[in-house]
Amino acid sequence: MSALTIRPAVAADRPWLIEAMAAINDHERKLHDSRRPGAECAEAYLAQIEAAIARDGGAILLALRDGKPVGVIAFRIARGDVAAETDDSNVAGYVSDLFVTDSERGNGLAGRLLREAERYFRDAGLRRMRIGSLAANTPAVRAYRKFGFADYELVLEKRLVT
């Protein structure tokens, strides 16, 4: 397999990043009816991620194989103000999005991207790193647990309309 590089995303990557965000949303839409079609929301969603990173710190990193994008991770520093939580729990690294192309799945790329985010958070002096996933996204949950994530909080949902 050829060499893989990971670098910060740049403006020229934006069309591929929008495609990746659409793919993430389309995948999650198959798992839960709360998601809009990726084509309808990917550009606005990417803009929200970029704004949060600009405000809070963080990055969008792109993985490339032979110059072609094959994965992306977006992460930021999440700050809360929950009186019941410790100071180091109120400030944590948060991975908002992680995408790996079909051709790269199972090759450890998700772990490499997560290690880059972890390095960023450690360098920022953070003691916690968090990631979210739809409960029905079992492949993602399995990959995150393999990387060392453990259940932290569970949000349950009850449908009020049938």
- Write the CATH architecture name: 3-Layer(aba) Sandwich
How widely separated are the two ends?
Answer: 50 Å
Question: Stretches where pLDDT falls below 50 for ≥5 residues?
Answer: none
> Rough shape?
globular
> How many domains, as an integer?
1
Radius of gyration: 16 Å
What is the CATH topology?
Aminopeptidase
Oligomer state equals single chain
Secondary structural class? alpha+beta
Describe this structure in words.
With 162 residues, this protein is of the alpha+beta class. It has five helices and five strands; from the N terminus they run βααββαβαβα. A five-stranded mixed beta sheet has the order 1-2-3-4-5, with helices on both faces. A hairpin with a 2-residue loop joins strand 2 and strand 3.
Task: Tell me the layout of helices and strands.
Elements: E1 4-8, H1 14-31, H2 38-56, E2 58-65, E3 68-79, H3 87-90, E4 91-100, H4 109-123, E5 129-131, H5 138-146
Parallel strand pairs: 4-5
Antiparallel strand pairs: 1-2, 2-3, 3-4
Helix pairs in contact: 1-2
